[in-house]
Amino acid sequence: MKTYRIASIPGDGIGIEVVAAGLCVLEALVERDGGFRLDVETFDWGSERYKRTGALMPEDGADQLRDFDAIFFGAVGAPDVPDHLTLWGLRLAICQPLDQYANVRPTRILPGIESPLRGVGPGDLDWVIVRENSEGEYAGQGGRSHRGLPGEVATEVSIFTRTGVERIMRHAFTLAQSRPRKLLTVVTKSNAQRYGMVMWDEIAREVSADFPDVTWDKMLVDAMTVRMTLNPSSLDTIVATNLHADILSDLAAALAGSIGIAPTANLNPERRTPSMFEPIHGSAFDITGKGIANPVATFWSASMLLQHIGEPDAARRLMDAIETVTANPDLHTPDLGGTATTDRVTEAVIAAIRGRND
Ligand code: IPM
Ligand code: MG
Fold this sequence. Notes:
The chain has helices at about 15-35, 45-55, 60-65, 85-95, 160-180, 195-210, 220-230, 240-255, 295-310, 310-325, 340-355, and strands spanning about 1-10, 35-40, 70-75, 100-110, 125-130, 135-145, 155-160, 185-190, 215-220, 235-240, 265, 275-280. With about 350 residues, the protein is an alpha/beta fold. Belongs to the isocitrate and isopropylmalate dehydrogenases family.
């Protein structure tokens, strides 16, 4: 029987609660399927470890993950640790060395979920945002000099490489080609940013030649927010830089009903290293310990994990179970206006997994 090795990194805050729920759901899928096993190893990396030892993870942390088939991640961030330390100390310290350069964020209005957009329902908003995940505005280039003096300077340099832009563009075109509408929107800001963003546009055009069946267009990122809000059905697959897609994916999650639903895959598409799956939301200390975190984003991420490791039937079964549950407003957590708890939603998803016969 196939056994996949999964590294679980719950991290901080509600990350711990939703990953626990996600592992229960994965266990139920393994039982239901009978054709594969998951060997899960948990890592206690995160802000508590930072406060104890001065580091969120061991120095060779990313290397410790190399032999796993996938990584299941919760969230990182604590009220008493600066956000840039937690981000660079854990999430980026995994994504960058493991070269998980394609961050894929599907957004859809699930059954039973209401969009804040008037007259927009399931089917009107079905997007996948492809976020460049290795360079751009998150390249880590920059510095500060003359701290505290009137002449203090700080730089935050965006890096765009031909290799980096071309590989994310190819990934986006390939993904667009695999979806029924074969439609890609390339987001830039090439009117104001005339070097990196103009190169981004040029590479998009070059790569498009290899995908003659994909219809593609270009949008400036500011205008893109308007199009997403006023004409969501005109979009399908979207590719953007690290920071632009970060911002657009929060907007996308809100327009699809809640950030509590939105999943992410940090992929190394060539499979040279394990990919990492996580909810988009953060550690949410305001609701930590209350048992009301929405586990749906984590379940959806778990479904992407199963798809990636090669268990598409289990992935589909999980997605169907999620949609059965979201369709019932009694099973909505407070972020969706309901009163259900994390446990209640988890039990319902497990029941739906067990109930299906095909
Ligand atoms: C995301 C998040 C992170 C990011 C935060 C937590 C640093 O917003 O995954 O979208 O900006 O990359
Ligand atoms: Mg974000």
